[in-house]
């Protein structure tokens, strides 16, 4: 018996656990990954064979973009961007600040095809929050809409930032802004120049720089390579088994493309499958239902609050040809899954678990049967290994023991941007990503997320770092001390709650605290509940004991 078969024998077929190495191996078959080192994700996507015709549909206008149009537009835009005045090159950073639109994938793919690194920002962020990201990432190019232009730093601050408008036409008033060089439609119609000088882009080169909220202090830029994206594209396409489908599947994109899941699935992955992506610029239930019915949507990816709204509706909503709902962001409870199944028996629910640092999906349920394990995040993704590590002893634990989840796979980030210290505390030298989630894996290899070691507040799938809101509230002249915690809520998942210690003689009210924060942050970061206390519990090193405050807040529920 050779060494490889002996090693294989040591892995428990039921759970995927190997006692010798104390690691779990995915029970799913590995997906094939391209061996050519000189390959970028855009070339990889464009070269995939499929029978699809329409790539993108704008839900609001009905505008259709075929695959032929899409790849021609990407090549044209890349040719235009590589020439002056932008002269985009490998290693330059390009920012997209935009709601979902059919222009988003064209901008993203054109930039990445040149070896530029793509960074994205949430359109709800304030000008101040965007300025911080621009100062850190130093983009030379921003793709944005006319409406969002004022949120970009002024020319005096970011003097080498050029702007391409994600609009169809130029207006006379655009001429007054010297940053604007073109519209996306204009550059997309440039004749592709096969002779232009091309930088060689490899699988190990950086492709995206997505900002994920740090556990302490400001958010950090997560660098993913072309290899990370290519492997995640393969995992996504295998998960939906789209290659084997004899009809074109239609996905409705309700999730933001600036978020890792939206970017990897809708602005890249699915465009290699021949599926049609219907793009919703912002989520509203009536518009979502109209699109599902008008465009024959078969797959609906969403975040849990949308699912809650669908179940809470007095009568079943008309879902046309919809067959599958894909939920990400937070595991769904038993009542919610049961309630959905009862109301919409013809629709399967699939779930996914992932982080910005894992370039999207680290585990998922891929069938209704797998989703019936209530509370599970699913089986580990293909090509994935996991460890469950005791946070105190550092010891790797077996089946059914709770510890911090570490994962390893070809899609794990390269590291945090310009932040060696944070990278070293999150990535081990041999490639394990410490997720910061407390989890266990059961006898059948299903992953369960118990709690977040990291203290991020997850509001409708958006990440809110408590430290950022605490720093803001400490500036208030009447606040002596403060702690912000996640407060559980059926509809939004969690929202920020502040425990405030008033300064002597202050009569600060709850409303004043909330308004003070609301004026300075994006809507999803607002403090929505306030309690006044005499002191904030802290440990010996001065770290806030959030767990105690969470217990205090939820004991009254």
Automatic annotation (TrEMBL):
One of its GO terms (biological process) is phenylpropanoid metabolic process. Keywords: ATP-binding, Ligase, Magnesium, Membrane, Nucleotide-binding, Transmembrane, Transmembrane helix. Residues 468-543 form the AMP-binding enzyme C-terminal domain. The chain crosses the membrane at residues 258-280, 292-312. Its EC number is 6.2.1.12. InterPro entries: AMP-bd_C, AMP-bd_C_sf, AMP-binding_CS, AMP-dep_synth/lig_dom, ANL_N_sf. Residues 48-417 form the AMP-dependent synthetase/ligase domain. GO terms for molecular function: 4-coumarate-CoA ligase activity; ATP binding; trans-cinnamate-CoA ligase activity. Its cofactor is Mg(2+). Pfam families: AMP-binding, AMP-binding_C. One of its GO terms (cellular component) is peroxisome. It catalyses: (E)-4-coumaroyl-AMP + CoA = (E)-4-coumaroyl-CoA + AMP + H(+); (E)-4-coumarate + ATP + CoA = (E)-4-coumaroyl-CoA + AMP + diphosphate; (E)-4-coumarate + ATP + H(+) = (E)-4-coumaroyl-AMP + diphosphate. Belongs to the ATP-dependent AMP-binding enzyme family. This is 4-coumarate--CoA ligase. It comes from Leersia perrieri. The lineage of its organism: Eukaryota, Viridiplantae, Streptophyta, Embryophyta, Tracheophyta.
